[in-house]
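Help needed: design a sequence for this.
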């Protein structure tokens, strides 16, 4: 079934939502689209999945464009199903608190609610709650329980704030992937029964918006977290690592070739000069010259025949 098809129609005579298998075939089904109020046709063929479709000919009583008739029909039928009374599986609710202290990230997980199953009492559809109109408001053990259905064109409202109503729980049920419920199969299961099974048992589509126990459980988790931080003692650094660091640092300073390249290398100290007496073996001329240096004969003007005969330190 595509998003252009309508799985549930609004029956005109009693204003109730019905499965396509619960009405007569064709235009005589007596149903309209719950989104745009266009008359529907019940398609009950032998090859394709049964579904409602908008009347193809132009009609005068269409209220608006119908881009989300699939989700609207599913949401309306889901409200009707819950109102009649079913058991609903609720997911586990876990949270985490965290703090950065003493150079370490501390975390403490806490459980708000276990996975459980409830059955609502005193159910009301499309009821006001915390400055919003929600899909379902019921009672569970004296607490108000709110259900809000979301889909691509209907996000969770920002005004759904229950800070002043601590005896209430709010659950979001996402309908985004419900079109997979109505794919063609050979089981013969009615679409209404598939939706009931989804509402009763599907956990991934459900998420907690608010739970009355969260505040107290979060406070206890912060107390445990602060106690853990207070008793935490950072591990001392290993002396071996300090020693190896010092040895490495010493080797870096002692060997200029191992020093960091971005640090300039100091030039070697100058070699002290010495004086020596030389004699030219060609002309027997004697002279003094500084070492290191090239002893050049003052007469021959050559160093090739210079011979050192005495040196002064």
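Sure. Designed sequence:
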């Amino acid at each position: 079934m595509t998003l252009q098809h309508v799985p549930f129609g609004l029956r005109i005579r009693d204003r109730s939502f019905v499965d396509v298998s619960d009405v007569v075939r064709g235009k005589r089904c007596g149903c309209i689209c719950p989104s745009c109020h266009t008359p529907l046709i019940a398609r009950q063929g032998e090859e394709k999945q049964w579904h409602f479709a908008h009347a193809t000919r132009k009609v005068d009583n269409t209220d608006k464009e119908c881009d989300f008739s699939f989700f609207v029909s599913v949401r309306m039928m889901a409200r009707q199903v819950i109102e009649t009374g079913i058991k609903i599986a609720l997911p586990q609710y876990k949270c985490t608190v965290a703090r950065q202290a003493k150079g370490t990230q501390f975390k403490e997980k806490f459980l708000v609610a276990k996975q459980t199953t409830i059955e609502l009492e005193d159910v009301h559809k499309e009821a006001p709650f915390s400055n919003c109109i929600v899909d379902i408001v019921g009672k569970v053990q004296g607490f108000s329980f709110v259900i809000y259905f979301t889909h691509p064109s209907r996000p969770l409202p920002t005004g759904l704030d229950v800070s002043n109503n601590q005896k209430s729980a709010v659950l979001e049920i996402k309908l985004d992937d419900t079109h997979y419920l109505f794919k063609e199969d050979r089981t013969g299961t009615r679409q209404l029964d598939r939706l009931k099974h989804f509402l009763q048992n599907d956990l991934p589509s459900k998420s907690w918006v608010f739970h009355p126990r969260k505040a107290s459980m979060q406070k206890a988790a912060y107390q445990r977290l602060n106690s853990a931080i207070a008793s935490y003692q950072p591990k001392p650094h290993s002396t071996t690592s300090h020693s190896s660091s010092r040895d490495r640092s010493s080797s870096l300073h002692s060997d200029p070739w191992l020093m960091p390249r971005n640090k300039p290398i100091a030039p070697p100290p100058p070699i002290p000069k010495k004086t020596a007496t030389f004699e030219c073996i060609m002309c027997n001329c004697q002279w003094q010259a500084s070492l290191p240096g090239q002893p050049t004969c003052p007469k021959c003007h050559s160093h090739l025949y210079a011979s050192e005969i005495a040196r002064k330190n």
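The helical segments are 69-84, 191-201, 214-231, 239-254.
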